[in-house]
Design goal:
The structure holds two protein chains of two kinds. By secondary structure, chain A is α+β, with helices and mostly antiparallel strands. Chain A is built from 16 helices and 20 strands. By secondary structure, chain B is mostly helical. Classes of the chains: A alpha+beta, B mainly alpha.
Amino acid sequence: MKRFVAFLVIMVMLAAPALGGCTKSSSGVSQQSGTAPQGTPQSSTRGNTLVIGIGADATLLDPQKVMNNESGYVMGLIFDRLVHYKPGTTEIVPGLAERWEISKDGLVYTFYLRKGVKFHDGTPFDAKAMAKELDRVTNKDNPNYYKKTPGIHSFADETYALVSKVDVVDDYTIRITLKKPYAPFLSDLGMVWSGVMSPTAVEKYGQDSGLHPVGTGPFKLVEWVRDDHITLEANKDYWGGKPKLDKVIFRIIPENSVRLMKLQKGELDIIDGINPDDVPKIKADPNLVLYEEPGLAINGVRLPNQVPPFNDKRVRQALNYAVNKKEMDDFLYKGLAVEMNSPLPPVQWGYDDSLKGYPYDPDKAKRLLAEAGYPNGFQTKLLTYPNPRGYNPVGPKMAVAIQEYLKKINVDVKIEQLEWGAFLQTVRSGKYDGMALGGWSGDNGDPDNFLYTLFHSSTYPVGNTAGYKNPKVDELLVKARETSDHEERIKYYKEAQKLIMEDAPWIFVNSVKQIRAASKRVKGFQLNPLQMFLDFEKVYLEQETK
Amino acid sequence: MLTYVLRRFAAVFPVLIGVSLLVFIGIHLIPGDPAQILLGDKGTPQELEQLRRDLGLDQPIYVQYWRFLRRAVTGDFGRSLRTKQPVWHDIAASLPSTIELSAAAILLATTVAIPAGVLVAVRRNSILDHGVMVAVLIGISMPVFWTGLLLMLLVGVMMPIFPLSGVLDDGVVLSKITGMYLVDSLLQSNWVAFRSALLHLALPTITLATIPTAVIARMTRSAMLEVLGQDYIRTARAKGLAERIVNYRHALKNALIPVVTVVGLQFGNLLSGAVITETVFARPGMGRLAVISILFRDYPVVEGVVLVVATLFVLLNLATDLLYAIIDPRVHYT
């Protein structure tokens, strides 16, 4: 009897952790809505639901509170912005604002808002609602100030940093005044991170707004199971047209190879994050379509411009001539990248396609090194990170390739590797005296986002990790920020690009293509340079004919 | 016996404090700053400083630890730096899935391994014995992620019987009670969900069970061999008892003690992670939460997970020890 009781006690103890997990019913983790179940996965039994496979979960779904890509993927379907990007580009077109005017001094933006738009919770969208949204990011005394929860950091910090006041002119007209002219402001407003949330929802959920996104977009949130999936359903009253799909589900699957297997099996319709090695497999599969487009990203090696021998322009140029970018693109990147001839990627407006860049010329490289006083080369180190990045899908392999090329001109490179967090900390400390892999993915589709962030001397050491300093470039970049005249800005940026290429603060390697793979049944889907899922009201699934 | 159990329970707390201190120091020693990771490629030094202040990361480490300890005693583990949700919330959401998977794996492992171990011990040095031991060697040697991907490819893709990842099919409706899909669907007599959950559980369970099966089988075999060599076994046979009774009623029961130890330890191992299996099969469990949190330097969540795992491990050890008292009447605890 005693032994039996003891046995029961043990069983209870083993069961205790399981029971402990059950009583805490949390929001959004219960019912899974849906229709018919499925045994063997057939996409047709899923009905009119599109499933997208992504590698990590969103963190929060309030555009003002978050910056990571995965959150952006989902928010692109839930929220609209004042302005949108023309599909497939980063050109600004009307969004929630039908048209706008910018004052001559670049300080006053007047937006004429679209009429008849409602948030998912029924709240009407108008100038007052927009003003409330803007107040929550500019007014520290607002009870729902977006930074009230500690640790919030988002693009809102930069987008609205220069806003000095907001005026509601009438029901559908809102006026935003800036402290200084800042031409990229419109591009900032077009990002998914500038999505407009319902003020009713903000008041209702307060600090938990990140878990209860309510926008005006083509889809609304139904369910979010952390690290597993996010289910959205169509907003039938969407002003841009009723979405053709009933539901969109984002499935979180960390492994690239598993995502691809599921796509091939028909369990997923679109996947993000593809190993370049898998591209031939996708191209060969008659059921799949590979979507590719030049990416809004640059990839290279950032040189420590203040540290000898890198402080000599000839040395930096020599390193650029020494790397065979075309060979890297063909073999390492499997044809999924284009050479950089400019610090801007080709798909960015303002890109100067007349620049020639640094063709592969190891002899010239050696000559330049000799001129600079290093006829026998020199030794240095190259810091790399271990994982693939969006702008560099082959990760540390790039460092090995660079090492090989530089060896041929007698530059001896020792590769050091640090985990991503440590890598960032080291590179941005301003104290690392070796080379380091560098890259940038565009946030808002404005050239300022690349050039000012990476090459203006004021952003050293965090943005301008190379320590590059050219007063003429600084001047051009500031001028380009201050004028709203599009053509004038392009002129300044072209001049700046030329100077930066001349100075070679980085080894400019390539600009990677953005690739996604989808089932051939997916129609109306288009990539955009910012890698977000946009214009999803147009996407539909072709039904299989049985 | 009761005093023994109470004493063991009381000993849990010093263990937890020690473990939490070690992990706290450990994760803070890893280079890489959570604020930096949250900002990613963007952000100025001023923003970084502000973020560190907001997250309380600018305090000296012993202050941070003291704050953490003070709150932990009241059950408040703080907020995740990544999701901004309370830590217990994230852990409670992920724990049931890990328990379900680990329990299924250990069940499979013991069901296969113990009979196998007994069988080959009884038929020692036969072809069956050598065959099984080779299989065991292979099982222990295969890395979990490889086993998982291989199973996925063979069973999941080439013969589309089992789903490749996740926990339930997209269209299935299931209310959450315990958070363990098999259990919940049984409790609600939802056979559609049960079938879906079972199919999704199959491949990860087999993957995760591979190593424990091998270890337990080997242990069972060697424990059985040792017992079978004992005098009392010879006596039992001399008494004329059937071979089956000798093997199971007498030999196995005595061989179980070391086997129970191993099973307990293996279960502890499985609970404390199943990290790779959960990542490969995209199951939202605690192991995966731990990895994501470490990569994000999400200190509060890492601490929370470690404390939960340490508690489970300690309880499991206690359960194992108490189980001895049941199996072996010679064992007394005071």
